[in-house]
Amino acid sequence: MVHLKTLCVAAAVALAGSPAFAQSDLETALNNGAERLDAEQIAELLIGKTVTATSGEKTFRFFYDPNNIVSGELTNGGWSGAGAFAITDTDKVCVSMVADKGRYRCMTVLRVGGSIQKFNADGKRTFELHSFEPSTGL
């Protein structure tokens, strides 16, 4: 019985240090004082604006039309697309580009210090948003 207890404690310690217990980017940001934006704040930032955003080394521009149409482009060329977006009552922005074939990808939006960041359903940071310019399109 003592060996079984020792084995259980050892397994728990091993699992606690494993990636299965690692915090997501979202959890880390929230634990470090990030502010989760609500639906009204997200709408104010995005709707009717051209937003410049980065994901890794890539820079994008997205236009969030008041009619729930989103269009985007990679700033140095190579990609452009359009689709639909929605801002939910659960404080997420969801986007479905044509290539998604109707699937919406919903993201949590946080203010992290002076930065606005989007996080996917798995809690991975996907975009950092840099500028929000009133616009009528790309």
Describe the fold and architecture.
There is one protein chain. It is built from three helices and nine strands, in the order ααβαββββββββ. The radius of gyration is 19 Å and the shape is globular. The longest helix has 15 residues, at 2-16. With 138 residues, it is of the alpha+beta class. The chain has an eight-stranded antiparallel barrel with strand order 2-3-4-5-6-7-8-9. It has helices at 2-16, 25-31, 39-46; strands at residues 35-36, 49-55, 58-64, 69-74, 80-87, 92-97, 105-112, 115-119, 125-134. The model is unreliable at 6-18 (pLDDT under 50). A hairpin with a 4-residue loop joins strand 3 (58-64) and strand 4 (69-74).
Secondary-structure map:
Layout (H helix, E strand, L loop, with lengths): L1 H15 L8 H7 L3 E2 L2 H8 L2 E7 L2 E7 L4 E6 L5 E8 L4 E6 L7 E8 L2 E5 L5 E10 L4
Antiparallel strand pairs: 1-7, 2-3, 2-9, 3-4, 4-5, 5-6, 6-7, 7-8, 8-9
Keywords:
138 residues; 3 helices; alpha+beta; single chain; eight-stranded antiparallel barrel
Question: What is the gist of this entry?
Answer:
The protein is α+β, with helices and mostly antiparallel strands and 138 residues long. It contains 3 helices and 9 strands. An 8-stranded antiparallel beta barrel has the order 2-3-4-5-6-7-8-9.
